[in-house]
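Help: read this over?
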Amino acid sequence: MRKGFASRLGKRLARLFRAFRGEVPEDAFALAFLKGEERALYLAMDPRDRAHAVRVAKRLLRAHPQAPSFAVRAALLHDAGKALRPYRPWERILTGLYAPPVPPYPLRRGLWGAFQIRRHHPLYAAERIQDPEVRALVLEHHRPQSLWGKRLHRADQEE
């Protein structure tokens, strides 16, 4: 039990450190998988979110080298809904600690809007993705239903 707690704490501290420093995402890796409007969605994300997305996609591919293209693309776009709001580290920390039940629309400004983005970013991203398989995985990445949704969720949670 203690080892699991220490591991989770270490991962959270690493995430906190990354939130305040810049990251250089491996965009060439991502763009090799993405197509059409997916590329614009990916590039609209903050570099820290893009770096996270690449790590998730690579983790998914390490665990499942046979992963279909739609699953890798979903891994790269799973947090694209967060791009509707500027990346603010303190906001991200606060909304990670507390996420009240808020409706997805109308999307508001201020802290209320930050809570909406935290809770509904899969919906906001899915609404912008045309491929139905990618859209479905992005939509379920926090509450997985399908096999690839569960695998994406696991890859995302390892960070």
